[in-house]
């Protein structure tokens, strides 16, 4: 279990959680180009799945297919000792009014689908970025999903959107993808004071609004306002960094109107998997699968292809999280965790400044961190 948690954390933070009392600074990041040949003809997703969160007309008006494709250069990850404390332009107050609560107290881990619904699961990908790193963009994963017409829910960190504005705008505009909030700099919601937790949520929301407006500003007269309005004006889903949350921040998120989405299946991304492995992962109707798309794990694309191929042979189709929720009843837990309650508590002591900064190799805190 510790190995599973360590690998998930490394996918977001770029390091294995340290053992003992010290934390490990990433001296060298393994950089992988997740660009593989795309095989087979494009497949269109099942009717009713995907295509509800953006506009193809908007995408075609702004970007060519070549501009949408990922590049090897974007897979690179950089880290630095002094935190990047910059916030969105204009501050962190979203322009839209926040919700009055969604009635869900807890973390949605999966969905119990209605009997009339077939075999459907949701693929989700986190785009994590701490204050002491600039994460990559795994274009191979996104290119594969687009080619195969597979919808997915992407949880974008606010700082990641700020450091990758062009890619973030493309994802925001793409009708195949639903966008969720993954906090500004991956703060640990079990540790953050409510004020800081609010900033992590609101700064990400504000950055999304900035980039959505930037998409609109680049449109020409040939694209209607109705097409642009198909892009959601805010983020209704939230994913907890480290899967951790305290009751006060759980209440904050509920009152803000977002739904907290976790997972019931953690996909290995640090080693290759087989069909047999996938058959033993516990995937079932209504499952929510966790992966990453920041180019840190080396085998995300390869394993995604195996999972998609296996599940399609088993008669599964794919939906976004919101679509999955519309098909049944969410399975909600008050505690956030990877596979078993409590399996991520040790992460509270692994990173600085409420989980937003790495610990450098000499153990000294970087300037600007708590």
From TrEMBL:
Domain NodB homology span(s) in chain numbering: 119-319
InterPro entries, sorted: Glyco_hydro/deAcase_b/a-brl (IPR011330), NODB_dom (IPR002509), Polysacc_deacetylase_ArnD (IPR050248)
Signal peptide span: none
Coiled-coil boundaries: none
GO biological process, one term: carbohydrate metabolic process
One Pfam family matching this protein: Polysacc_deac_1
One annotated GO molecular function: hydrolase activity, acting on carbon-nitrogen (but not peptide) bonds
Similarity comment text for this entry: Belongs to the polysaccharide deacetylase family.
Cited function: Is involved in generating a small heat-stable compound (Nod), an acylated oligomer of N-acetylglucosamine, that stimulates mitosis in various plant protoplasts.
Name this protein carries in UniProt: Chitooligosaccharide deacetylase
Native source organism of the sequence: Anaplasma marginale (strain Florida)
């Amino acid at each position: 279990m510790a190995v599973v948690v360590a690998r998930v954390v490394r996918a977001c933070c770029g390091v294995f959680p340290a053992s003992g009392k010290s934390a490990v600074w990433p001296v060298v990041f393994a950089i992988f180009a997740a660009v593989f040949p795309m095989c087979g003809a494009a497949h269109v997703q099942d009717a009713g799945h995907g295509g509800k969160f953006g506009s193809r007309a908007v995408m075609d008006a702004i970007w060519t297919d070549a501009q949408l494709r990922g590049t090897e250069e974007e897979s690179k990850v950089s880290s630095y000792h002094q935190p990047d404390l910059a916030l969105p332009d204009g501050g962190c107050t979203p322009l839209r009014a926040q919700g009055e609560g969604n009635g869900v107290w807890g973390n949605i881990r999966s969905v119990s689908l209605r009997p009339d619904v077939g075999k459907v699961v949701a693929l989700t990908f986190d785009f994590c970025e701490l204050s002491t790193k600039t994460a990559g963009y795994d274009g191979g994963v996104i290119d594969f999903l687009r080619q195969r017409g597979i919808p997915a829910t992407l949880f974008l960190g606010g700082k990641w959107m700020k450091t990758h504005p062009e890619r973030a705008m493309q994802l925001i505009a793409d009708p195949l993808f639903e966008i969720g909030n993954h906090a500004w700099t991956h703060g640990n919601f079990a540790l953050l004071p409510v004020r800081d937790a609010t900033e992590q949520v609101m700064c990400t929301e504000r950055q999304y609004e900035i980039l959505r407006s930037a998409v609109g500003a680049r449109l020409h007269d040939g694209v209607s306002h109705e097409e642009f309005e198909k892009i959601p004006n805010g983020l209704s889903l939230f994913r907890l960094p480290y899967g951790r949350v305290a009751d006060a921040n759980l209440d904050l998120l509920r009152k803000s109107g977002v739904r907290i989405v976790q997972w019931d299946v953690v996909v290995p991304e640090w080693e290759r998997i087989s069909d047999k492995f996938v058959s033993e992962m516990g995937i079932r109707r209504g499952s929510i699968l966790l992966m990453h798309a920041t180019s840190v794990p080396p085998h995300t694309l390869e394993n995604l292809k195996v999972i998609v191929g296996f599940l399609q042979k088993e008669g599964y189709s794919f939906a976004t999280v919101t679509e999955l929720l519309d098909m049944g009843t969410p399975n909600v837990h008050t505690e956030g965790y990877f596979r078993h309650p409590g399996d991520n508590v040790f992460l509270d002591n692994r990173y600085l400044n409420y989980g937003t900064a790495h610990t450098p190799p000499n153990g000294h805190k970087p300037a600007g961190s708590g």
